[in-house]
Amino acid sequence: xxxxxxxxxxxxxxxxxxxxxxxxxxxxxxxxxxxxxxxxxxxxxxxxxxxxxxxxxxxxxxxxxxxxxxxxxxxxxxxxxxxxxxxxxxxxxxxxxxxxxxxxxxxxxxxxxxxxxxxxxxxxxxxxxxxxxxxxxxxxxxxxx
Length: 145
What we know:
With about 140 residues, the protein is an alpha/beta fold. The protein is built from seven helices and four strands, in the order E-H-H-E-H-H-E-H-H-E-H.
């Protein structure tokens, strides 16, 4: 009898969780557990994720929180993770993302993570309290690694 492989489970990964892996002063046990979960889980992110990460790293370098060499090593690590880009996210920017942002007092960036979780029926991994509260109010589960 052939062994059936279990399909990996997916969750939405907020940029703040990933940034907690890079900036030592933002580290958290929760973020560490999320990082450790990639052996059995896969993350999905909206198109803004890469830009959000890049911008935070640039600002960190300018403020002396990190170096270009540290960022280069960390980006190699991020590229190794099973993080997939949701190709539909931008199609919802001027509709569902705006609606969720307005209704929940979120930035469009945070609303993009919430919209993705709602649309795909996925749990959300986040460190942002306002985003987590909005997710809970909408019945979106919070990812528990």
